[in-house]
Design a protein that fits this description.
Elements (H helix, E strand, L loop, with lengths): L54 E4 L4 E4 L7 E2 L46 E3 L5 E5 L2 E4 L33
Antiparallel strand pairs: 1-2, 2-3, 4-5, 5-6
């Protein structure tokens, strides 16, 4: 047959395989099995929607994204996420070590002696001096007892301190 078929709005039922170059549909395509495309799948006016804890998966590498609850987007098979750009969020949490390939930049400035949210937190003052949260207050290195060995992140000691050499301190066991 070398002509168009006008079904007049009626159904085409019990067809085996329908072959062709294009398919134009006004409403939707419904399939009870997989839909396979030899090229990109594109949405020009809507979302790509998945259900039941499924999402997107790269079959070759076994990675992708999915959701199993209302809060977290998960990496399929616990794959790592890589970007040459930024990851940005309200907060970033690591349940293990945190490593930076460059310097650690702290944007928030705090004042020694004021309230701090969590013991062990690290910040800096307006001149760049390191502060740590101790007993609910920001504490600078000037609060160390006299004679204490103090680490600092530069080759020169802070103003008012001296660089001492030759003294040994026990490291513990």
């Amino acid at each position: 047959m070398h002509t168009s078929i006008d079904m007049g709005g009626n159904n085409l039922n019990s067809a085996g395989v329908v072959n062709g170059k294009y398919g134009n549909f006004d409403v939707s395509i419904v399939s009870n099995g997989p839909v396979t495309a030899g090229g990109d799948i594109r949405s020009t006016g809507g979302w790509i929607i998945s259900r039941h804890g499924r999402g997107w998966m790269d079959e070759t590498h076994g990675g992708g994204f999915y959701m199993t609850d209302n809060e977290w987007i998960r990496s399929l098979n616990n794959k790592s996420i890589y970007t040459g750009g930024q990851l940005k969020g309200g907060s970033v949490r690591s349940d293990s070590d945190l490593s930076a390939g460059g310097i650690l930049k702290l944007d928030q400035v705090n004042v020694a002696g004021t309230w701090c949210p969590q013991n062990g937190a690290i910040s800096h003052d307006s001149s760049g001096g390191i502060l740590s949260c101790q007993s609910g207050r920001w504490s600078g290195i000037d609060n160390y007892p006299i004679g204490s060995p103090i680490p600092w992140p530069s080759t020169t000691p802070p103003p008012g301190y001296f660089l001492m050499a030759g003294q040994r301190f026990p490291c513990g066991s």
